[in-house]
């Protein structure tokens, strides 16, 4: 337990230093406290240095789920986000847009603040992310551009728009997601569950993803806390997995959501294991602090998920699900990293290396130049 408490103290010190400053843009924090010693060289095949869990951060090195664009309003500039990542030692980041955006004339930054305001799929955020990426090439980071535009209910437009992005930015997009199969939080804003009849019509763009070896990250709620509805929408994801077994599919949040806060963890884990066993190309994303706040925070529940992650350690990806609204700053992101990384404290060394230190991500993405360091014995 010593290594865990030491790692926790190190990151707590970092966050304490952050909180001594006002929560506004422009304030700085002592770089000695906020600058992580981790760099890309530590994650190359040539690196011989082991990772000491007793002295080095337990926070993940990969944020596989980060929205660089908000639903509405202004975004944190990409070069500023890059600085956040470097300071926290988050070296590998998926650059998501937002699949559904608020109208340009809306005064809202977040869809929950504007019920009854339509959110509509748009490709504009993917273009903005690519343009910013080209203008501000990441220094000391590995960023992966993601196509976040698809409306899965209208699949006929997806492949042509993929081609449009690839024509404008050849060989730059390596991921698709987060795309919404069903997201109950958006129901008041005009979103509906994708009809199961539409899923067979995905064949063209899913074939293109296989050809380009691009994973697709799918938001697909399992259900909600109403009696008998915990797994209401499971047939949708099962249909996707049945029809596209050769695609690299990432099921974000393990199907959990703010609408499903009280699922029986034993049953939920059993459902996840069954899908992982049946579909070798499926992976789970454990991003979003909603999972920690409602599940991992409870010791007896956390222990069940730790056993699950240790057993299926090659099938899990970490992340924050941070949405980069200009109303947020470094402290907010640092807190999101800390909370969503706490589960790492309890993982065994093999799972910690695969999940927190990025081995799963490198393998999924075919990043042969990178490798997670071994854990010090």
UniProtKB/TrEMBL annotation:
InterPro entries in alphabetical order: Amidohydro-rel (IPR006680), Metal_Hydrolase (IPR032466)
What sequence ranges are listed for the domain Amidohydrolase-related?
201-326
Check the UniProt entry and state the signal peptide residues, or none: 1-24
Keyword Signal belongs to the record: yes
Gene Ontology MF, one: hydrolase activity
What are the alphabetically sorted keywords of the record? Signal
Protein name from the UniProt record: Amidohydrolase family protein
Lineage, opening ranks: Bacteria, Pseudomonadati, Pseudomonadota, Gammaproteobacteria, Alteromonadales
